[in-house]
Amino acid sequence: MLKLAVDLSGLHAWCGGDQRAVVDLVELAERKGFDQVCLGDHVIMGEDTSNYPYGKFHAPSDWPWIEPLTILTAIAARTSTIRLNTGVLLSPLRPAVFLAKQVASLDVLSHGRVDLGIGTGWQKAEYEASGVPFDQRAELMYEQVRVCRELWRNAPASFHGKYHSFDRLHSLPRPRQGADLPIWFGVPPTERNIARLAELGHGWMPLGLTLEQTAAGIRRIQAAFTARHRDPATLSVSHILVPEFGPDGVGDIEEAARQFPIWSAIGVNVLRLFPTMFCRSRDQYEFFLDRSIAARGQTT
What we know:
Layout: E1 3-7, H1 19-32, E2 36-39, H2 68-78, E3 83-86, E4 89-90, H3 96-109, E5 114-119, H4 124-130, H5 137-153, E6 157-160, E7 165-169, E8 183-185, H6 191-200, E9 203-204, H7 211-227, E10 236-240, H8 253-257, H9 260-265, E11 270-273, H10 275-278, H11 285-299
């Protein structure tokens, strides 16, 4: 069944900057039937965003990027069914053993609702400020996943890689979902990334791709799953649905709803919707949720 995700980006503006009030909006999305909540990540922001690879960067330098795992913990305490997705967390900016502990703790507190979406980002300034080598970020990310899996699987755990090495360490609690906690990669569909996703991941979160490019990427990843004797039907794919914007800068939810079956047909099983793209204000939020759920019902 096609699932719907609500993205939190920009919702603080509807709440006078009160990030706690954003949790109320997620509670309503859960009651209406949304399946997942998503939130992107920047640990720190430089003022030069000219290297953003997907056109003009949407947020000013003073945008309040709340830390995703922190607010998802608050959401976990106020919800019971909606899944908690980082979309995407810049994992190389966090020590692997700390990431393993954070994610496991959130999964325990949420009773097993974490979908860990990770990526490497594009802004070199973030890595320089964090003391992490920018040109090694992808290699570091994939090794982090192996570290997390080892810590989530064994106690004591041992690991020896290029960036991490330890023997007989304990990291508890383990995730409620176990060592196979779903990990989604927000990466371009290169040969290397596809091979790593098929080896280590459960989902793909592409960005900036057309329908045709996304469909081609899905086929290649599914083939890689098959080559590793994994069921390609278990691949999850999340797509950000960007609407046609009217003169007022607001997207048409009715037009967007007509795209649901098109994306579903190529193998996308999670549509990620940004309420700020479809609503002029918080007053329109409930209608947006209702219309989205109704359109999903017509797709299945």
